[in-house]
Predict the structure.
Amino acid sequence: MEKLSVQMKEALHDGLIFFKWLLYACGIGILVGGVGVAFHCAIGWATGLRLQNPSLIWLLPAGGVSIVLLYRVCGMEKDRGTNLVLVAVREAQPMKLRTAPLIFLSTIITHLVGGSAGREGAALQLGGSLSAYLGRKMRLDALDSRVLVLCGMSAAFSSLFGTPLTAAVFAMEVVSVGRMYYGVMVPCFVSSMIGKQVARACGLHLSVGYLISDVPLPGVVPMVQAGVMGVLCAVLSVIFCRVMHAAPRLYSGVFRSAWARAAAGGVLVLALTLLMGSQDYNGAGDALIRRMLGGETIPAAFLLKMLFTALTLGAGFRGGEIVPVLCTGAAFGTVAGPLLGLSQSFGGALGMTATFCGATNCPLSSIFLAYELFSGRGLALHALCCAVSYALSGYYGLYSEQKIIYSKFRPQWVGRSVK
């Protein structure tokens, strides 16, 4: 009888914790989802205004300097971006609330003047900083604060990109690769799904994904083709990460002042844009992805998008890396796919998910991304391609604070930071 009483108390305690996190996750999903919608609309406004007024591209140097000024005035000139969110989750380090409005405004400026950057990485900072602030106000302990930050990351990513499964799994997977905290699945999925519903209620993400054609059925030949594509995307992801990490060091080696680096980066991106004669590689790159998956062939697009993004973010502009990674992978896949016997469309799709996988070291998130972006078409081949890319991309990654807990080739603890 006494043992039964103890079990009932434990069950009651677990139930209370479950409903507590349901409540917290719903609140975070609504709040951060709403902020994510506002962020999405602001980015859309800035991009639309630039496309209607192409001469705004001339403000690139001034835009970079204004971002540096914003962070310096707020005492955040040494802000580490998304890396700070990863540390906040893993080590419960505090995040400042001012991170949210700063990344909001600075990313809008980047898109308004034509910097090559995404928005999902910025969304992780936005959701993480807001959730961390709420955790402090609610006087949560360190462990609960980490869970709340993960909920904020999930809700922001989902409301901005419209992929709730990817958002929740990515938040759980990206911090420490090889160690997922299954105890946070319920709050992360709930906050992510509510964030998506908030966005839908505001008229966003009513249709999510890309149309692809000529998707082969799983078989020996398609498996070999997908595997080879995975190898190539692993190499591409390593190059992308190394270029992204090298750009800030190169800027710092030439220009000692952050102001000078931002201005010089703006001038370089402006000059490259004028040289190209179009603004195809400015902004995140979603329109370019759709054009290439639709049949347009641009052989050097993956190199150009990589260069534009490195010059932009390396100089001190703010924004995310995820959509530029997807754009780079899609551009590469549309070129490499036909050489391997795949259709241009499906090759681009494989390139998107596999390059994302190699750059983020998040294979499960990449498989969910393939499902949500391409309606599950060719999912088994996407999974194989991502698995190969993950294994062969080594210990490189976009985020220097990401930890690789286990070896990529055997069940052995390695505990390495990415390069």
Observations:
- The CA atoms of residues 228 and 318 lie 34 Å apart.
- The chain has a mean pLDDT of 90.
- The two ends are 57 Å apart (CA to CA).
